[in-house]
Amino acid sequence: MVATSVIFLGFTIPDEDIQTICENDQQMPIQTHKFAWNFVDCLSKAGIDVELVSSEPVSNYPRYKKIFFKGGLNDCKGYKLQKLFFINVLVFKHITRLFSSIISLFSINKKKSFDIVFVHGVHSPYLVSSWLFCFLLKKKFVAILTDPPGVIIGSDGAFSRFLKKIDVLIVRTLLSKADGVIAVAPGLIENLSLDTESIILEGFVEPSKALLSKSFSNKQETVNFLYAGGLFKEYGINEFVDAFSSCKLDNITLTVLGKGSSAEYIQGVSDKDPRIKYLGFKSGDELDGLFSGADVFVNPRMKDGYIENLSFPSKLLEYLSFGKPVLTTKLNSIPSDYDEFFIYFDSDNVTDFREKIEAVASMSKSELFTLGDKGKKFSLSQKTPQGHAHKVAMFINKILGKK
Questions:
Q1: Residue 22: partners with Cβ closer than 8 Å, 6 or more residues away
Q2: Class (C level, CATH) for 5-204+384-400
């Protein structure tokens, strides 16, 4: 479809490496990892030659206990992967990633010429190095936006918050120079006032996951709800667990997977309510097994007029691929195309959460199956790497001025 070669600069690392990171980092960047590899797969299916330049997506020391990360050339999933050296300490991380990525980009281009650099995320060292490389060598520079820049987390200190404000200014300036932008939500482009060629890709479905889904059993009366992800109060998980615990129904269970600052609170509620099981962080085949055994996936979020416009929870697509209904907060960033496949909370409080849990629990297994199957067929027909390949190829043609 497109005869071109690209460099993908981001966080594509081996699966075993991301598992180690998720086991030891409270932020658990699993969705970043999945999006990155699915996008690379999408590029390949569009006939594009891809080489990877990446670093591990870890929190700053001491939140993540490792300081020095070695670089090196690897073969990973059939691609050449240049891992970057960096020092995982505030300020030093940005400096070392900047120089490592500059050296790698120019070094790779000496061996083989590339047309475009795709930069995954709003990491300023990568944006600076990519812009410099493309400016000097007359290449094209495309940014992939999955989150807004400068998001403040609870563990950020005053100095870190100050640096993030400066970082946002740098990111905004560099993004304004991009030849193209791919975003998971229109609000990301609008918020940054970007006026360049752009497309929206909410995320990807892995077709292999659909093969793992189990059929509903009409004989089984219990409805198994499942939540997987970060356990932070701002995500709404505390309120959801409280709502579930306050339900008087005996035919419901809730499995909670993940970790975060609310883990202890959820464990406490679980200790008092045998219907709730907190299993901590799970990955790989064990996670897939738990997903395939769920009846309903849940994704509560606290309504926020700013953030909810700027992100699309990519795990919603993963949930759809398992052929089970999804009970989620209606974020402004969720396109109307999805409305017939999701069950939406009306609000973000305990009362509404409880009412929706009870309403879903009263649905027959055939109703749940029909809803889940519709979502599965929709996601597999349009949201796979193969399904997005033509759209991405046409976008690249526009960037390169091809017809």
A1: 28, 29, 30, 281, 283
A2: alpha beta
Q: Which residues pair with 253 in a beta bridge?
A: 224
Q: What is the pLDDT of residues 308-327, one digit of tens each?
A: 788 888 899 999 999 999 99
Least confident of 34-38, 311-315, 359-363: 311-315
Specify whether the CB–CB gap between 88 and 68 falls below 8 A.
yes
- Per residue in 364-396, pLDDT (tens digit) is 888 999 999 999 999 999 999 999 999 999 999
- Which residue from 36, 399, 393 is spatially nearest to 203, judged by alpha carbons? 36
Q: How far apart are CA 216 and CA 12, in angstroms?
A: 35
Residue 14, amino acid: P
Residue 28, phi-psi category: left (phi > 0), alpha (psi -120 to 50), beta (remainder): left
CA–CA distance, 198 with 176 (Å, rounded to integer): 12
Reported as a pLDDT band with limits 50, 70 and 90, residue 65 is: very high
- Long-range CB contacts (< 8 A, 24+ apart) of 61-64? 61/88, 61/89, 63/25, 63/26, 63/27, 63/155, 64/21, 64/24, 64/25, 64/88
Neighbours of 378 (CB within 10 A): 17
Q: Taking the domains of the chain in order of start, what are their residue ranges?
A: 5-204+384-400, 207-382
> Residue 279: which of 246, 247, 254 has the closest Cα?
254
Nearest Cα neighbor of 79 from 105, 37, 108, 51 is: 51
CATH class of 207-382: alpha beta
